[in-house]
Amino acid sequence: MKFLFIILSLAFIDSRCSESKIDQETISLEYSAQSRGLYKNIKINKKNISFENKRNTSPLIKACSQTHWNNLLKALKPIDVENIPNLKAPSENRLFDGAAIARLKIIYDGTTYETKPFDHGNPPKEIEILVKEILSTSENIE
């Protein structure tokens, strides 16, 4: 029994170490939402948070705190990033001006993974926690 516990412990430690080898410097998140009356463009990486709430203006850029970054990574962790282009929007209000058109991009190591358009305020369930964390983080810098 002790042998089994040691083997399982080593496997757990090894998997945790491999997760920590992710190069956080190559991860960035981008969220945009726009309609006739709304514009949001949020870009976040480990160092900075960039936020625009009006078209053709300079973005507000602030440092990204370690706490915000850790919360974003925690929200990102359960997402199958390669599958986000295939996610289906739960509603279609954006098709008739009932909601702003939103998109999420996850850029990792030079590869961009982008969702199909979805309604701002109603993202696909698979990315809902991450979108809420991005919006919350951007609101805390205004």
Key traits:
alpha+beta; Mago nashi protein; 30% helix; globular
Word description of this protein:
- By secondary structure, the chain is of the alpha+beta class.
- Helix content is 30%, strand content 27%.
- It has helices spanning 2-20, 66-76, 128-139; strands at residues 27-34, 39-45, 48-52, 60-63, 101-108, 111-114, 118-119.
- Strands 1, 2, 3, 4, 5, 6 and 7 form a seven-stranded antiparallel sheet that branches.
CATH class categorisation: Alpha Beta
What is the third-level CATH name, the topology?
A: Mago nashi protein
The mean pLDDT is 86
Strand pairing plus helix content: what structural class?
alpha+beta
Q: What string, H for helix and E for strand, traces the elements in order? A: HEEEEHEEEH
Q: Number of helix segments?
A: 3
Count of individual beta strands: 7
Helix content: 25-40%
Beta-strand percentage range:
25-35%
Largest sheet: 7 strands, antiparallel
| Count of domains | 1
Annotated CATH architecture: 2-Layer Sandwich
Evaluate the radius of gyration.
Answer: 18 Å
The rough form would be described as globular
Distance between the termini: 55 Å
Protein name: Lipoprotein
Organism: Flavivirga jejuensis
Topology, please?
Layout: H1 2-20, E1 27-34, E2 39-45, E3 48-52, E4 60-63, H2 66-76, E5 101-108, E6 111-114, E7 118-119, H3 128-139
Antiparallel strand pairs: 1-2, 1-5, 2-3, 3-4, 5-6, 5-7
Helix pairs in contact: 2-3
Can you describe this structure in just a few lines?
It comes from Flavivirga jejuensis. With 142 residues, the protein is of the alpha+beta class.
